[in-house]
Amino acid sequence: MPWFLRRFLRFLVSLLAIIVIPITWIVNKRRNGTCPPPTNPLLFKSATTLTMMIRNKQIKSEQVVSAYIERCREVNHYLNAIVEPRYELALRDARLIDKMLEAYTGSTDMLAEMYPLLGLPMTVKESIAVEGMCNDSGTDCDVRNPAKKDAEIVRLARAAGAIPIAVTNTPQLCMNWETYNNVTGITLNPYNLKHTAGGSSGGEAALISAAASIMGVGSDIAGSLRLPPMFTGIFGHKPTPKLLSVEGHIPDSLDPQFEEYFTLGPLTRYAEDLLYARN
């Protein structure tokens, strides 16, 4: 390469640095700080404890769901983790569960066996279908594409008594180790708003870490259920391939080997809830 071209390229790099460094400093200054800490005592209890309290009629599902909805509204301004909420529908679902419990006269052990996640709020990565909710996997579509039905893993969670309260941010087609797309922007880390929450299940990780969700569902082919929990101090588990159905996830693949590597799985704030959520 001629010497004058090398000097010109060096000049361009220096000029770019002069432009980019101040912009980066300004952006980071605006992101300075952390999420406000939770104050509601319900947010400090594990899913295992909360669902036991709901079954024993010590607390209502509506109280738990309301606490998490309130926390979502408080912290999402900082995190940008929620793509679309379903707060009113979630509260309706919680009231139906409370009404069912009022009339229930059987044993709590039988109730636990039938509905292990009874009355618990949950969040779902936006790439996983929740009926009626956005399901574009972070892509910029001309027309909104709500899911026509629940993904199989969401259907099973609902059948176990869980209540989806929101779908959460993901990079475009889940193809990044941080959570950013051109539609909803970047999701930030609740412990330091200058830092990433990881990806591609970063919306889930940020919300759970901030005590705005007790458990969630994400996906993983190259670390997406493991890296975000590592960045945000929570727990994620990539199950054995084919243990859980991947039906209802976008993107999908026709490659017969796809499901040997790609899985859906749980994220939780408490380790004891991982097995609970997986079941």
UniProtKB/TrEMBL annotation:
- Parts of the chain that traverse the membrane: 7-27
According to the UniProt entry, the coiled-coil residues are none
Q: Which UniProt keywords apply?
A: Hydrolase, Membrane, Transmembrane, Transmembrane helix
Amidase domain: which residues? 64-275
Which Gene3D superfamilies did the record assign? Amidase signature (AS) domain (3.90.1300.10)
Q: Which GO terms describe its molecular function?
A: hydrolase activity
Q: Name one GO cellular component term.
A: endomembrane system
Report what the protein is called.
Fatty-acid amide hydrolase 2
